[in-house]
Prior knowledge:
Low-confidence stretches: 1-43
Helix content: 40-55%
Order of helices and strands: HEHHEEEHEHHEHEH
Oligomer: single chain
Radius of gyration: 26 Å
Shape: globular
CATH superfamily of the largest domain: SGNH hydrolase
Number of strands: 7
Mean pLDDT: 87
Structural class: alpha/beta
Number of domains: 2
Largest sheet: 7 strands, mixed
Amino acid sequence: MIFNRIEYPGYSRLFLVVFWICLLLGCQSDELDQGNATEEINTNDIPNKIMPLGASRVQGLSPWFESYRYELWKDLIDGGWDFDYIGPETETGSYPNYEGLSFDPDHQGKMSWTSEQIFEDLESTLHETGYPDIVLFSSPGGNDILDGLPYENVIENIHGIIDLFQDRNPDIVILIEQLAPGKTSFMTPELTAIFDQAVLDVEMIAQDQTDESSQVIPVNMFDGFTDRYLSDDIHYNEQGAEFIAQRYYEVLQSVLE
């Protein structure tokens, strides 16, 4: 049977009503989708995404030893900076709110990890978290040195880590630590010699890897660092965490957007 508008005027009116309702709902849906897309873009475009990267000195294990991250977080808030810590790891300790804000727990520090483990995991880490604007590369090669691994591999891995970051974000800024030493009684002459060599090599790595768009900046963590900043042979107490955070903040003020 063929229907026509002359024989069934009610059908025509019903069709028009349904048509306009669908049209209006479709427009609202598009607006909602656009709003969600805008919100997602804004979330991804948060300025100054900072990735704390490293091993136990980044991770912390409060109350036994501290990471610098909480103290630096407070410094950045006091400075009025917009920033966001990123990383797949989450702080397990409990820290007080500051200026009405709860501590940002995200980081990429894993206990006992070597430079090779950090390098091998980095691709999947960046896939999970997105690309940072700033990396705080803590104690590069520290565990390799303590484990007696080949030093030439440390240098190769550090270059590889920086290359990968720069490949994913050509404008990235990487702050790379010149190692703070362990406790005096722990630092044998052999260990001291290789720590001193690492300080020099980090300086050279930073010069080699800095280009027109990406800065790699060494941060001096060894001058002025004393035993009173340590909770054990190598990890920071609260004073040590404050010391490291302040050294980072002094440099960050000049690179934050």
